[in-house]
Design goal:
Two copies of one chain form a homodimer. By secondary structure, chain A is an alpha/beta fold. Chain A has twelve helices and 18 strands. In chain A, the strands form two sheets. In chain A, strands 1, 2, 3, 12, 13, 14, 15, 16, 17 and 18 form a ten-stranded mixed beta sheet that branches. In chain A, helix 4 packs parallel to helix 5, helix 5 crosses helix 6 and helix 7 packs across helix 9. At the A-B interface, helix 1, helix 5 and strand 12 of A face helix 1, helix 5 and strand 12 of B.
Chain lengths: 395, 395
């Protein structure tokens, strides 16, 4: 784990110049990392690309399809980069997120939350007109019937998958209820049955790789059995999507899981660092911490504490802030909507007003969702600024 | 505290029609509350207007100026409405937020976080060109000098106030350090000294009105003394801004505080409901809960629990979710980035897939910051859709 870097040395260029470069869209090599206004979301491209390549290679080596989750990045450029590397598409948590991806040319979409209600079903059918290979998840008979009827009225066919409840979140129960739903879908003339989505959120964050393996096998076994039962009954079920950043190298070894849908691996966060790795002990280090927040010291009320300009509105707060942010002799804590506090644990702080501090996000997905753009850097320079075009698309 | 409403009864109109109405900008009376895509941020205009009018009347009755905090709403329409009711402007937490307000015609701005670094100072001077009455906070000598020099180079005068550390967040220490800074500012030819900002964040959330009163008096006394000392030394210090939603009716009775900068009162949230009121006991009910999130049940895996479509990306997570959301026989909990879980505490849940649930936000400011728009409703109808134009402006 790299210690957060402190960037000193003010730029000599004016903000008007920087603004002009940003507006031109042609930023490569023209803006330094420490010229970006803070708080800012930063992506280390070397680490990001290595993360993506590692996951693509792992899926390929294990004969699994890979459809990384777009709820993590909400960024069409990232979705397209990952597809270019070998993924077959992107997951989207919600319909409105998928609409943004589709509008930007991303295909191979899987909408992982059921599309519920007359209006959203109308939108789903419209989306299938734009991106016909989009898969929609269904977990009850009425919703399947509603999707079928709306698709029929529009003379379209919709790909649907059963969302299976394997971790106490959404989905239909495995076994008889899911089998009955699969049989129903197979009979609905405007739906094409894809298979089963089984996302085991609980297993993903189980600490310790062996324990996590046991948890994932326990969670996924009913999904595999449900798939087998459907196939046995003549309902062709070619597809079973599981896998997360925590279980990618567990689920890729479980027979019957055909596809992985991890998300956080591309960025990583302190939350996943804490779950422990197969070969890396307590610190899960299969993927590099590519995503950081750059903040500026805006106040130094005492020698022993400074205030930086990133608070609840700049970093996800659903997990504790910063167990892994080890900067010698300091600790970090949130300090309200707009600020965080850096406190010395030994003597006076070296940080001064105007210094920049770079920290790793506590939880990547909701952190990304706070920002409109991500500054992509390589070697201290900004290489690109990508719009987080699906930011806020929780509908 | 009203129980969250469950809205049933699907609309008969198509999404295409709703979308057309939304795009027209003329929504008044044309869209029902339950036709909005969820999760959605909703503002009950009757409650909101009553909250604003009550605060304006209170400030007026107590001879205090009122400059409510714009970091709460980030919405130019709201800032302008409040000014129309009698406030003299709006606070902004950060420079980029103030820039958005100014671009939309809001004046009387106070930027409550120090503007640090060459680029942001350049932007501050530019902002003062657009909105010359904007006040900038300063908490160290170098920053004051930098602002003065940049203002001079642009041939402008900047209003500045001392940001005083009265609650362990930003600011210079009261007494001698702050007095020296005030004397310095008074001598800088391109700065106009306004006075002191002293925001006592700790006091604001102290539970129990009497305890809160004691905490606010303790926090604000050094600010009042600093102001008196500056005046005594011939540095005219006409202005002292304090006050929050928790202390508005405490600070308005403290001699020497001239202005109040509360924010949350206009919306309210469960977090402030818990601090206790002067006359309303444990439930602080001076202001109505005008801000809600409308969500939809998207899954019903068992009879005893349903999943709604609002998670970490739809509601602030820095405070516990929902101690005050009392719906008979159910409890609420977050369930990841995209979902929350509603669990029955007694028998089967009545909620079905497709039902809508309206809940009060746990913490209003960071919740608003998740959304691009706010649906303003009256009597079950959407009256306006306002852009949260400064959303994400944490810089």
């Amino acid at each position: 784990m790299a210690a957060p870097a402190v960037l000193r040395g003010a730029t000599t260029r004016s903000w008007a110049e920087i603004e002009k470069i940003m507006a031109s869209g042609n930023v490569k090599g023209r803006i330094a990392k420490d010229e970006v206004p803070t708080p800012a979301l930063m992506l280390d491209l070397d680490l990001f690309e290595a993360n993506v390549k590692k996951m693509v290679a792992h899926a390929k080596a294990n004969n699994r399809a890979l459809r990384p989750h777009g709820k993590t990045h909400k960024c069409p450029e990232i979705a397209k980069y990952i597809v270019k590397q070998g993924a077959l598409g992107a997951c989207a948590a919600k319909l409105s997120e998928a609409e943004v991806f589709a509008a930007h040319g991303v295909r191979g979409l899987l909408v992982t939350t059921a599309v519920v209600g007359k209006h959203k079903i109308e939108r789903a059918v419209r989306l299938a007109g734009v991106a016909p290979d989009t898969i929609f998840c269904v977990d009850n008979a009425q919703n399947a019937q509603d999707l079928n009827d709306a698709a029929g009225a529009a003379k379209r066919k919709l790909w649907v998958a059963i969302d299976l409840c394997v971790s106490g979140r959404t989905g239909i129960m495995p076994g008889a209820p899911a089998v009955a739903l699969g049989e129903q879908i197979a009979k609905l003339g405007n739906l094409r049955f894809k298979g089963i989505q089984a996302y085991a959120g609980g297993a993903s964050h189980t600490k310790g790789w062996e324990k996590r393996k046991a948890a994932s096998i326990a969670a996924m076994t009913p999904a595999i059995e449900t798939r087998a039962e459907l196939n046995k009954r003549g309902v062709e079920t070619p597809w079973l999507s599981g896998g997360s950043t925590g279980t990618y190298n567990i689920d890729s070894g479980i027979d019957g899981i055909t596809e992985l849908q991890p998300g956080s691996f591309m960025f990583m966060d302190t939350d996943y660092n804490l779950i422990g790795g197969k070969e890396t002990g307590e610190n899960y280090a299969d993927f590099g911490n590519a995503l950081t927040i750059q903040a500026t010291v805006v106040s130094r009320p005492t020698d022993a504490h400074v205030i930086i300009d990133s608070g609840y509105k700049a970093m996800a707060t659903d997990r504790p802030f910063v167990p892994l942010l080890k900067m010698a002799g300091v600790k970090f804590a949130f300090n309200g909507d707009e600020h965080a506090k850096v406190t010395s644990t030994e003597g006076a702080l070296k940080l001064q007003v105007g210094d920049r501090v770079e920290v790793i996000a506590p939880h990547c997905d909701p952190t990304v969702n706070l920002y409109d753009r991500i500054y992509c850097t390589r070697g201290g320079q900004v290489e690109a600024v990508w719009a987080i075009a699906a930011r806020g698309m929780a509908q």
